[in-house]
Amino acid sequence: MAKIALFGAAGAIGHSLADTLRQRGENYRVVGRDRARLEKAFGSDPKAKIVTWDPDDPASIREAAREVDTLIYLVGVPYNHFELHPQVMQKTLDGAIAEGVRRILLIGTVYPYGTPVSTPMSEKHPRDPVTFKGRMRKEQEDLLLAADAAGKIEGVVLRLPDFYGPGVEASLLDDTFKAAVEGRTANMVGPIDTPHEFVFVPDVGPVALDLAAKPEAKGRWWNLAGAGVTTQRQMAEMAFAATGKKMKIRVAGKGMLRVVGLFNPIMRELVEMHYLQTTPVLLDDTELTALLGKVKKTSYAEGVKQCVEYQQRRGSSR
Fold it and tell me: Lower CB count within 10 Å: N or C terminus of the chain?
């Protein structure tokens, strides 16, 4: 029986968690709206049990959470409908509590911190979101932590910076890796020389699962920082150097995002979050490493190399 369920499993972090569970020989449940997508991603793994759900149907949520000990919450919503984040979290919480789920670990973001008042930011940094998306993410966290404080369920938040990895399309760097392999101009969101950090997606699974297993982790949030400070330009330079092609980049600033946003609603949403590109938003994960011990962090050089090699394999298989 699967004691761990990945709600919203079909995304990049879900794959990292599933890979880790598979390597550890553990059964697990993958939960999502689209069965075909789940079958494509996890159907070949005998350790995975595929379950579909409807977050608007309480009975469906309860069935997906039945006999689960630990629920890893990865549920996404459309980028232009962040008001759904607290709504879906509340519905999931209600179903999980009704089914006796012991713990929920939420994969969170830096959005609730808002504009940094100190760098790097530890868990003691105030959560003072300056955007609607940040407020919705904070409200989502607060629902989980309030349920923990009330003794209804154990709640944990693992906070991540921007991420990247082989085949991870929801990344600022995805087009850069593709362009480096194809020899074309990379489209980037700037400015690209601001100090930045990225977490390598395959590194997240082991950290999240180890954190979920720690009783003392409950009732709070934990930061996972990247492999150090870099910039988008440095990442692009490594990618093009890995392919031996001349670096060509096209950088869209806030003004260009506004123009493109007139025709593309998702790009329009990036305007609100543009402070993440102009202000260094760097995490301090000293407390996490003190709790878990050594945390594997793939170097940017190795991570970029793996991303480029993935795109090269993908191109040669077409």
Answer: C
